[in-house]
Amino acid sequence: MSDSLLLDQDPLTGRVRRFHVLPDETFALTSSMDVEPIIEQNKDLARLQGKRWKDNDNLVASIPMGIYMGLLKTWREQGLGYQERQEALKRWLDNRDNLAFRIKAGKL
Q1: Model's pTM, two decimal places?
Q2: Is the domain of 26 the same as that of 49?
Q3: For a Cys staple, 15 with which of 10, 20, 69, 94, CB 3.0–4.6 Å?
Q4: Element (H, E) at 59
Q5: For every residue of 11-31, which 3-state class applies, written as one string?
Q6: 46 and 97 fall within a common domain
Q7: What are the pLDDT tens digits along the chain (108 aa)?
Q8: How many domains does the chain have?
Q9: Which domain holds residue 91?
Q10: 85 and 55 housed in the same domain
């Protein structure tokens, strides 16, 4: 993607949207987000967490809103109900590729 134009930048979420002119004279819109601040915050919070799980008082993860909304959209398109979405979220958080968003260690 060669030519690009900044459309907007949200300082609260860190999302940046750009308009790109492609070589075949078509265009594309991209949306990106710097998740590094959330990952660093998660690391700091993880150090403060105890090893034991408390009944219902555990901060388990912090996920960027854009990623979470994308997951919800996918699960709705798959026809998952509330309980199935909860189980899918647990599987997503337990996946090694997503450990940066976890705060509390252990399997959910």
Answers
A1: 0.74
A2: no
A3: 10
A4: none
A5: CCCCEEEEEEECCCCCEEEEE
A6: yes
A7: 457 899 999 888 788 999 999 889 899 999 998 889 899 999 999 888 877 777 667 788 999 988 999 999 999 999 999 999 999 999 999 999 999 999 988 888
A8: 2
A9: 35-108
A10: yes
